[in-house]
């Protein structure tokens, strides 16, 4: 199992770099070429969401992106350190009123909707110490060229 970990300052200009690194590692891991645009878009949304949460909560720690190549799948975890106990209810399908109380939720909810539309296997966890978006895609074995 190969792992690449990327830490970047929570600045919008670094999101593009995270997208490029994710696409390169996904390609190397064997993710289908037709899916690479979805990987780039999903990582961009997840990283933009994390950057926004860090900025709105004035959190100085970096955003974490972990790229994991497993035997039959490629996974990406995007983590932030923004505390949001109320946001967990909103992600889990809580009332719209709870979502409005959670802060910059409109963008947060939209970003999660976009990610869910792009990725079949996605899991979002959030709590008092931060949150993680886990996404994965199937891989195909690399063909051996003589």
From TrEMBL:
Keyword ATP-binding: yes
Pfam families noted in UniProt: HATPase_c_2
Domain of life: Bacteria
Domain called Histidine kinase/HSP90-like ATPase: residue spans: 8-137
MF (Gene Ontology): ATP binding; protein histidine kinase activity
Keywords annotated in UniProt: ATP-binding, Kinase, Nucleotide-binding, Serine/threonine-protein kinase, Transferase
InterPro entries given in the database record: Anti-sigma-factor_SerPK, HATPase_C_sf, HATPase_dom
Keyword Ion transport set for record: no
Enzyme class: transferase
EC number(s) given by UniProt: 2.7.13.3
Protein name: ATP-binding protein
Top-level taxonomy: Bacteria, Bacillati, Actinomycetota, Actinomycetes, Kitasatosporales
